[in-house]
Structure formats: C-alpha cells, structure tokens
Amino acid sequence: MSTFPVCDDVLSETDEVLTLPDVAELLGVPVTRVHQMLRDDLLLAVRRDKIAVIPSTFFVADEENVGKQRVLKQLPGLIAVLRDGGYSHAEALRWMYEEDPSLPGRPVDALHTHSAREVVRRAQALAL
C-alpha cells in the first residue's frame, strides 16, 4: 500500500482534528479515497499522538448530501498555490492557521467566508 504525506503537528492543541476514518465517514467515501486525497494534496494531515488526523475546519456541510460534508471549495486550490510557491505541508498549514488581522481571523477561517478568494490571492502573492 502506498503511503500518504503527514507532517508534524503544527496546529494549536485547541484546533479540532478528525481521524482518517472519521473523515471518510464524514465525506461518505472509503478511507482509501481519503488517503488518495492526501497524496493528491487535496487535503493536508498532521500526526497527533502518533495518529494521522485532518483539521475539521477543512470541511463544510454538503447541501446536496444531507448529513454529509465536503471539502471547502477553495482548499485544494489554496494548497496547490502554496505548494507551487515552495511551501512544505507544515509551512502551508502554519500559514493557513496563523492569525491575520486583515482577515476575519486566520486564512483557514476566511475560507468559510466571502474572503476565500482573497486568501488564495494572498497565497499567490507569497510565491512571487
């Protein structure tokens, strides 16, 4: 079985995380699909207490599938922009979870608002 990328836990202890089986259930997909999403940089995972986990802020309710959630629309693009800009997984997560007074909190929180495109734009500017 192929491995998937997991970085050191750079999140705050208060940031909620989900195990990979929990993410699979949340999305209504097999856990192997979650592994593939990690390999494809559609999601990022950290190792917390020796277990691979994914931040719960990466997900939002799926209006089309009641009771299920989906990955935030802008997240895969943001990850791609940061990775293309030379950011490691850990550096990308640090940037997403760092407070930004010009946004409503942290970039990851702004992905849940009308500021999502601004977050991606700022990530693109970092690579220049």
Describe this structure in words.
The chain is of the alpha+beta class and 128 residues long. 40% of the residues lie in helices and 15% in strands. The protein is built from six helices and six strands, in the order ββααββββαααα. The strands form two sheets. The chain has a four-stranded mixed sheet with strand order 1-3-4-2. The chain has a two-stranded antiparallel ribbon with strand order 5-6. α1 (20-27) packs across α2 (31-39) and α3 (75-84) packs parallel to α6 (116-126). The model has no long low-confidence stretch (mean pLDDT 93).
How large a portion of the residues is in β-strands, by DSSP E? 5-15%
Biggest sheet character:
4 strands, mixed
Q: Unreliable runs, pLDDT <50, ≥5 residues? A: none
Overall spatial form:
globular
SS element count, helices = 6
- The SSE string, one letter per element, is EEHHEEEEHHHH
DSSP strand count: 6
Q: Cα distance, first to last residue?
A: 37 Å
Strand order in the sheet with the most strands: 1-3-4-2
* Arithmetic mean pLDDT: 93
- Helix content estimate: 25-40%
Task: Give the class from helix and strand content and strand pairing.
Answer: alpha+beta
Rg, rounded, reads: 14 Å
Task: Give the key terms.
6 helices, globular, alpha+beta, single chain, 128 residues
Quick synopsis:
With 128 residues, the protein is α+β, with helices and mostly antiparallel strands. The protein has helices at 20-27, 31-39, 75-84, 89-97, 107-110, 116-126, and strands at residues 7-8, 17-19, 46-48, 51-55, 59-61, 69-71.
